[in-house]
Specification:
single chain, about 325 residues, alpha/beta, GMP Synthetase, Chain A, domain 3, Rossmann fold, 2 domains, 9-stranded mixed beta sheet, 3-stranded mixed beta sheet, binds adenosine-5'-triphosphate, binds magnesium ion
């Protein structure tokens, strides 16, 4: 009886990669399984291992699949390229709508303007809207080595879950394992090149979505965005708690929508109260990175695809992001 594809996949699911003690399908990726009569073809991508361990793996797989009834087994193993990313920083917020994506995008652009090599990974499974904020309508392409080439704009390499969706306005329900695979792909299979900073826009909150994404990526630092009012900082504390639990050091807290700048008279109003971001930083012993005012141009830029940090005008927000970017550089080097 011919071997079934599902049997082969089961073998891949339950075979450890010699040398790294991880299962093939959890540490690696299945490219192809084909059964042609009594011949089985397998193609997988796994983390780099030695030639000796690669030979061992081929032998184990061949034996296991032959024992299912196959006469011939052809295995193609390719190695995953290790990414060359110095600091991957996840941006979290206790709840939605506080400006997490706005901060991720503008921080990335400001870091690029400081001469850093920067990427943004939009990992918000609920609403990946970083492409809109960057004004990107193209889709990334996949090269002959099956690597995804990110789209570059304002000096930043951009990759988004949204690029993987057929229609960005159709909500999809992501199941846990699917999220993990998609996020890992956005990190591992993308040709990021050498990066100083990869800014990751997490899904809002500290629920399953944010946790799954945080666990799926090798993170160096966390960063928390909050607004100044008391109800928001209670939520921001949860994000700090999430990073603490996952043992990811927090680079700092950014307070967004700190005060409103009237587009007519330039007067400042603290419509959401005062000092929440500083308070929560102090209470949790993490640095306060700065305040970003609520400015009309920021929202307009978000909608039209020109981040405030990339605008020509001398905006307060632009200056705020510049100062925050400098702090991020200073603190990440420590
Ligand atoms: N400092 C600011 N000044 C003016 N508008 C802002 C500012 N920060 C964010 N906004 C606007 O507020 C809205 C929400 O911001 P954003 O999408 O960045 O929040 P988010 O936390 O990523 O939300 P979500 O939880 O939906 O992902 C956007 O329209 C954005 O343009
Ligand atoms: Mg967002």
């Amino acid at each position: 009886m011919a071997v079934r594809e599902t049997q082969v996949i089961d073998v891949l699911k339950t075979t450890f990669i010699p040398g790294i003690k991880k299962l093939i399908l959890s540490a690696g990726m299945l490219r192809e399984v084909k059964v042609l009569g009594d011949k089985v073809l397998i193609s997988v991508t796994i983390p780099q291992i030695s030639k000796e361990n690669e030979d061992k793996l081929r032998e184990i797989l061949t034996n296991r699949i032959k024992s299912l009834g196959a006469k011939e087994v052809e295995i193609s193993i390719s190695f995953r390229k290790e990414q060359n990313i110095k600091y991957s920083i996840a941006v979290a917020s206790g709840k939605g709508g506080v400006g997490k994506s706005t901060v991720s995008v503008n921080l990335a652009v400001s870091l690029a303007k400081l001469g850093k090599k920067v990427g943004v990974l939009d990992a918000d499974i609920h609403g990946p809207n970083v492409p809109i904020m960057f004004g990107i309508t193209d889709r990334p392409y996949v090269n002959s080595e099956k690597r995804i080439i990110p789209i570059e704009k304002y000096g930043v390499k951009v990759m988004s879950l949204g690029f993987l969706l057929e229609n960005q306005s159709t909500p999809i329900i992501w199941r846990g394992p699917l999220v993990t695979k998609a996020i890992e792909q956005l990190y591992n299979d993308v040709e990021w090149g050498e990066l100083d900073y990869l800014i990751i826009d997490l899904p809002p909150g500290t629920g399953d979505a944010a946790l799954t994404v945080t666990q799926s990526l090798p993170l160096k630092y966390g960063l928390v965005v909050t607004t100044p009012q008391n109800v928001a900082i209670a939520d921001a504390a949860k994000s700090l708690g999430m990073f603490k639990e996952m043992k990811i050091p927090v680079l700092g807290v950014i307070e967004n929508m700190s005060y409103f700048i009237c587009p007519h008279c330039g007067k400042k109003s603290e419509i959401f109260g005062h000092g929440g971001g500083e308070k929560i930083s102090l209470e949790n012993g993490v640095p306060f990175l700065g305040k970003v005012p609520l400015e009309m141009k920021v929202r307009e830029g978000g909608d039209s695809g020109i981040p405030a940090a990339a605008m020509e005008e001398e905006l307060e927000t632009k200056k705020a992001f510049e100062a925050i970017a400098k702090k991020v550089v200073e603190l990440s080097l420590k």
